[in-house]
Amino acid sequence: MLHSEAVPPAQQPAGLTQTKPAAPPAPARPPGRARASFAAAEPARGDVASLEPLLAHVRDYLPAKDLKRIREAYRLSDQAHLGQFRASGDAYITHPIAVAQICAGWRLDADVLMAALLHDVLEDTGVTKVELNERFGPSVAEMVDGLSKLDKIEFGNREQAQAESFRKMLLAMARDVRVILVKLADRLHNMRTLDAVSRHRQLRIAGETAEIYAPIANRLGLHSLYRELQDLSFRYQYPARYDALNKAVQNAGKVRRDALGRVTDTVEKALLKMGVTAEISSREKSLYSIYRKMVDKKISFSEVTDLFGIRLVVPDLAQCYLALGGLHNTFKPNTSRFKDFIAIPKANGYQSLHTTVIGPHGGGIEFQIRTPQMHQVAEAGVAAHWLYKSEGETASALQIRTLDWLKSLLDIQQQTGDSLEFIDHVKVDLYPDAVYVFTPKGQIRGLPRGATVIDFAYSVHTDVGNQCVAARINGDLVPLRSELSHGDVVEVISDPNARPSPSWLTFARTGKARSEIRYFLRRMKYDESVELGQRLLEQSLASLRIDSASLDSARLEKVARDTAAKSVNDLLADIGLGLKLAPVIARAVALDMSGQSATARLAPRSAPIIVQSVDGISLQCAPCCHPLPGDRIVGHMRGGHGLAIHRIECETAKRQMSRDAERWMEVEWGDTISGMFRTMVEVSVNDERGVLGRVAGEIAAHDAHIVQVSMDTDAEQVAVIKFTLLVRDRQHLADVFRGLRRLPQFRSLSRH
User: Fold this and answer.
1) pLDDT (0 to 100) of residue 684
2) What pTM value is reported for the model?
3) Which of 109, 123, 527, 570 is catalytic?
């Protein structure tokens, strides 16, 4: 689900009293039809909104010609939204102006401010994209279009419509990151004014913000915005908990701020002795961060020791480490709470030294140490310098990382057909916890916490992921499902003939890995299904004495259209997957050829389908009977899953055949079969010490692989051992049986 209409019950942190789940006070909604972004048709209160505060803010960094363009955008927006009002009763134009002012606070360019002023005109008014393009240029028109929802398209449900709108916005963001900056400013103003809407909408919008927009702000390094969106979402999702926690922090702050002031004085003197000049400021932990810590660690409010922290902003990189030494020389450090995000920045470009020391009263105090440039990026993220790189200047590490992430959105989009699946993939990459690992050449790669070797392989390159067979972590061979830890050196071992397995989806964590695996499997399933469908249709046509080789392609295309398939290949794929039955399609072809009923022209069935391999997706051995080459077999078309091969004596096959005979067909093993086949064997032996090892050794001596084993002993001291084996064919299994019968402990055996 992309969002939740109602917030599910959350775990109540210890020590936080909750009175009643009352919503924040909301004025009665005015009558009339609600419009997007809380607009409603009602006269406004107060004077017409003015553009002057925005212009006063941007005059110090934008030229006069840009101010003129901004005024023009304002005039169009004001005219387009004339007569529209927000749920609060304010004129609707106040919202675009507020969004533009937030963008101006990030010192964004004139095109962005114009897009902010116009961001709702395509959605809520009669203005067209063509008109925007003619008056303000393609850059502004594309941004506004990327910010507009898809209200005019029919969708099956709200979740699908919302997911498609998010996908449109994120893909517009991948082309121009400024789109998401305007959208985040839009969401921030809406969250700041959420009191004016119904409780139902508060819950939905707050949930959406916590799930999508706040993580995007964090991913782009907009830390101040991230904190505010989190706290506002917390306020509306859990108002009683928010109020209780807010009061507790205010009460605790009076005492702790005094202690913090004394610590600050001590730090200032210690740094002066080291020759370090620093701008020292204290900071409070956000309410949502405190709440999450109480829930995650199952602690009470009184046990949260890092409500406040101290930030040191020093002139240069060298003084960051000098300041760190001064702190550790003055207070005892907690070595388990030290992180160097300067040497290894976070994925969103954040850089700082983090250290926690034991304060004079025994509690922990967290310090952040950074340069002014690091501080600017920490607060404004990608907005801090994305747009102001001078001519010829090389891209920063943050820009490169952001570009890589945006490019990954396009890659995921290309491999994903469904908008809900696309959003699911993207959400995986949005959450902040990360591990940082190294390639054998020393390159750093950041991956989500819980990421595995397969995620690392796909982060290097799609082909590396698709062909991955094994890996080494810190020189040791490990399975592909192994989770990565900070500082691991990961080496991927690949094979050009290898391909992804469906089981990889159970442990792949990143959106890129999951989308690439699913895309490959879909493509492989489609190709195999087309090939199998071709063989099945040829067999059914032959039974009607129709030569498929001489069949007119236009006739097949017509039959494909008549059966609602987009193409002949899609028709063949549906046959191969069992979604359409080959005999039915063959009769449709015969009917089209003769213009009359084709049932009278049925002839004895032609030669059976020949099975050469079952290691694909569309053709598999049935798990109920595990057929081996050499067994007499029959095939069953499973709707959507291809052809399953059963042994002719399989009881499951016999029962299903009596109910649905048309889906069963003759199949035979080919002359040359590749691969190993699974079978199950039960061996009874005298229960002696070491008997399991002797039985297993005999199986291994005949080159059979043991996949699984279990052993039980009955009251008569007879051990019953069940093996799952991989063998080449029926003859290979017979060789294994002969070896087992020669054991002195042998009593009986059977194939299951």
Assistant:
1) 92
2) 0.55
3) 123
